[in-house]
């Protein structure tokens, strides 16, 4: 049941990305072009996601446990390190250059294009490189649990 729920959540997420226009790199790049031909439509998509998440997290975390798991798995780290900041920077640069972030890129695999495939290859190489770099401290592998 847990696998089925994960699949359904991923399917819903992918459909939301597609319907919201997040899988269209031209629309994403238009949204990021603040001083050019700015396309504000994705602000509504992101605003809806933020509001839904804000309300949903408050409701879900009042429950004693998830429906299909023994407990919640929430991050406990609150510090910023070079790996996090470097990864966030690379993510932003890649998003700005390609118009894709990982979720919409995977959701777009049904219609692969050369830029999409280049991004996915770069993303896989980036994941591999990140695993090769030593963690900055023992806290980098801290466990996840309900706080």
UniProtKB/TrEMBL annotation:
Pfam families: DUF6691. Keywords: Membrane, Transmembrane, Transmembrane helix. The chain crosses the membrane at residues 42-61, 82-100, 112-130. InterPro entries: DUF6691. This is Sulphur transport domain-containing protein.
